Each structure stands twice: as C-alpha cells, then as structure tokens.
Amino acid sequence: MSKIKVAIVGVGNCASSLVQGIQYYAERTPEEAIGLMNWDIGGYKPSDLDVVAAFDVDVRKVGKDIAEAIYEAPNCTTIFCDNVPKTGVRVSMGCTLDGVAPHMSDHAEGRTFLPSDDPEATQHEIVETLVQSGTDVLINYLPVGSEEAARFYAECALEAGVALVNCMPVFIVSDPAFSKRFEDKGIPIVGDDIKAQLGATITHRTLTDLFAKRGVKLERTYQLNTGGNTDFLNMLNRDRLASKKESKTEAVQSVASERMADDNIHVGPSDYVPWQNDNKVCFLRMEGKLFGDVPMNLELRLSVEDSPNSGGVSIDAIRCAKVAIDRGVGGILHSPSSYFMKHPPVQVTDDQAYTHVQDFIAGERER
Asked: Residue 367: its pLDDT value, please?
C-alpha cells in the first residue's frame, strides 16, 4: 500500500500523540499493538501515515522539523515514544484569525501560546503547500472556539481537494451547507469534535445508554472536567465554549431514553488546574429511578492522559478518509463520523456506530 499523506493544523498535544503513535506502532507487531481499535483499515496500518505538512503559529514550533516541534512548549503530554526520527518536514506558519484567545497572553510562557512575528500564511499559500506536498488528508487540531480559523482551513481543504478530519467542535461536517460543498466536489469529510478512545463523553454515553436499556429513568446528570493543558487554559474564556458544550451535551442527550430538561444536565469543561498538565479528570454523576420509583445515583471519577486518548481515534479516522478516497467516495462519511466524533451529522448509539464502521472498513457501502 502507498503511504497516507497527512497535513496537521495545530501542532499541539494531540498532534504530538499522533506523530509519536505513528512511530510507536511502526516498531510493533499486531500482537503487540495494545491500544488500537483497528490494526488494519483497508490495507493501511498505523505506520502507513506520513506527515507531509504541518501548520502552527507558535514561534517555538514554526520552522522546526515536525519531529522536534511536537516536544516544544506549551505541549505537556506524555512522551511515550522518544525516538521519532527527523522527517525533513518543517512546521509552516499558519493563519491565526481567532485561533488564539486574548486571555492566553496573561499566563506564563511555558503554559501558553507565543505567536510568531512571521507574516501569516494566506489561503493561497496554504493550499499550495497542501497540493505540493501531495496531502491526502488534512486533520484539524485547532483550539476550541476557533470558529473562523476552522472554517478557513476547511476552505483550504476544499480548494486543495484534500479530505478533512475535523477534530474540533466547530460544526463543519454537521453543517449541511458546508458539507454539501465537499459532497459536490467528491471530497471525504469526517467530523465534528473527536470522541476520545475512553474519555468522559464515551463513558457518559455508554452509561446513559445502559440506563435506557435497563429501564432506569435518568433524571439528572453532570460531567465536570478539569485539566492543565492549553486546551483547558484556552477554555477559561467561556465565550469560546458554546459549540463545545453543545457537542458534548448532545452526545449524551442523543442516547438517553428521553431528553432531559436543560436544567437537569450539565456537561462541559469546568476548570484549569496547571499541575495536571495533559491529565484530564472527569467527575460524573447520574441520578435516576429504578423499579418501584426507587431512587439511585452513580458517581464516577475518570483520570486519563487527554491527548493519547484521542491518538488512536485520529489514526482510524484518517485511514477511513483515505479508504474513502481510494473507493471514490466523497462527502460525509457517516459511519466513521458517528463512531469517532461527538457531534456527527447523524447520532446513533455507539453499538450501532461500531457495527456501521466495521461494515465500512469491510467494504460495504457507506450508510
């Protein structure tokens, strides 16, 4: 099989985990490949991803080889592969727009973004980089709240004719007007807002689905999340959280037996705790009624390293996008979007999504 040529927007913690993971699994056999949902997708292994372009605006990353940039501050995720070889691919200057929240400048350099003084790239320059590098799939890892920037890079993908995996909660794939433009050009898209391998949202969804299947009436629930990476620092600006809260809330509401009143469900980032670094802690509470209207409640604490938790999901989403290219399939990839993303255009249970994506991988027609 040929390599899958990948371009990354935002060389942060998630990008670091993705790049580390490509090398990590290149050194392992299928039997040793702990932590993957799928070893083979359409003939592509995890190590078949080849990062050919990357865009960022931080002075500590722009101009550096991607293999060096992923370890630069403010990245603080776990280093599980410290032998990523130099690639010869240098991080290009991107376009900021609303990608850096004003309040980020109030924090220590090692914790926040340091925007470069280099001239920002134009849409034409980014498209040219994507075309010249032969990019197959562009993956978007911009900060939450980067509405303008996310749409800017989606426009770049459209113009360059490359597939898009939108890992952030800006509604591009789930926006019918935007997604139709990809469909009209025959370009695959997967999104929106990546669902971690075993994170707060997938756990909350699974338990909510369990309540529904076991006849337990879910009356109230909250999901409170804390972390210490730039994602949580960025989200201290509550004005940037509207789409994130909608994405996470709808992911839970969509599998409940009946929709809860807005006052009875709270799902979203809660606070920034610097010393947690890339560790994310979720506090989950669910209150309901059992047989005979007898009350019950469940409390759970989940602690995960945030960015590696999305790495394997990204690798699968990218491979599904490339398989769609190989098959001549364009537009929304509903099965991968429903399984890998919090806010897909069509919400189904995770059991259904799992079956659908395995059918897609096996070569059945997209749903």
From this structure: 66
